[in-house]
Amino acid sequence: MLYFVNFNMPVNKSGIEHAQLKRIALFKAHKVPAKIVTRDYDPQLHYNLKYTDLTDDDILMKFDYFQEATHVKTKEVTPADVKIPANFSDHVVKNWVADQNYYEYYHNQAIFMRVAVFPNTQQVAAVHYFDTLQNLYRVDYYDRRGFVSKEQYYTPDNKVNMEQLLRPDGSVAVQQFYRFDRSMKRTTSQFRVVNYQGKDYEFNTISELLRFCLDELARKDPQVSIFVSDRSLVDDWSIMHMQEKSYKVLHLHNSQTNDANDPMHSGLNYNYELGLNNLDKWNAIITATKKQADNVAARFKPQIPIFVIPVGIVPNLVLTENRIPMTQRTAGKVIAVARISNEKRLDDLVRAIGQARESIPNITLDIYGYENSENDYAEPKKVRRVIKELGLEDVVKLKGYTNNLLPVYQQAQVFGLTSRMEGFNLSLLEAISHGVVGETYDVNYGPNSIVKDGINGHIVALGNWHQMANNFVKLFKNPALLQKLSDGAYRSAEEYSPDNIWATWINLIQDANQKISDN
């Protein structure tokens, strides 16, 4: 079985999560067992699967594994089901705090319990317990499926010092203990797995605990186990230090160097530094493009194979859909699909739109993606400031994150990408597959492979937003050229058909079966 390891499967997904979803669909179509494994605790994981095509069989949360809660039927648990001390029951005042989504319970004018519910429901999310001095001493967190999944215990000075993760029957599965340094920063001092197959286990870090979980999956797997590190900063140590026989794959979702355009000399991307400095602990490397594979081979000279497997897959349904001509799309519509963060340089794209608007009055830009909160939302603030400085408030719109981009792609004419550093960029491929023309900076490794200059768009020198603006003008003033490149976009997407991508995975699987079976 193949296991794709990540931190979580959140509602607001990055390109890595979207790549995993496409990959699982591909493997299911070919009836090859595969599963996403997540490291972090998330009481809403299974509920949030409704925003994907995943089922409980397709994903395994590490804590679910030890909690024996991978497949639990959802039941309703409302505030009325939460027990109140018997000697309080006749003298309790209950208040609903609407803006906080919880009920407060008072006895003799002193709060003793708070019951939070999930938004827009009466399903219990957490119960906070207070002592006679009204100090918080415990919080019970509920899995969205309707059982207490975590107990959190507080010290008298209101600091969490221990957590217990529970099985659906209420027994303890995992304990997590904390310590505080001199600056009172909390760190984990120990994890304890309780009564797992009749034994207890202790681990110092979450990476050790994840390693143990992965080893258990491999030990019980009747097939060759293939573990793919999809989120290296989260899982590389755990996979590298596995003790059970398995095939370990380092997946480079982004540039391996800080400067993607100086792959031979630039410092290493911290996400991949540990993995790349310990290539003897891996069985294979995956890159999304041949160019990246060549660069990795030239610099690191690995003694393991490098497989070029694009993370993007264009479904056959998309490849065969009716093509939408440019005349039926919103004239002058440019889109970007990216989180608003520093490396995306979206202020460059805004400036390009501002310059192009001097010649194309109806040009507009819609930016789809969540806002990076780093440094108090510094980058979103910067983008808004540039929009205001250029007087583009009615031209450039920040649309936020959306799960459904199909209608966006069907109405857009051009996709703009101004990143200084990129992974494969699934959104660009999706746009191309729907006939949207690509305009991108010359950035390794995905954009300058997906966009083929003069065929489905244009590649612009890194940082040259003036040239990108000129390209916008040229496209929107020349409908025939715009349509020609759109036709090229539709055709170029065939390179990423399910059959073509599956063939690349088969090569890796065959290598794993041969090498691991022979050992």
Automatic annotation (TrEMBL):
| GO terms for MF | glycosyltransferase activity
Where does the record place the Glycosyl transferase family domain? 333-490
Tell me which domain of life the UniProt entry assigns to the organism this sequence originates from.
Answer: Bacteria
Q: Which InterPro entries match?
A: Glyco_trans_1
Alphabetized UniProt keyword annotations: Glycosyltransferase, Transferase
The record, for Pfam families, names: Glycos_transf_1
- Please state what the protein is called: Glycosyltransferase, group 1 family protein
Query: Which organism's genome codes for this protein?
Result: Lentilactobacillus kisonensis F0435
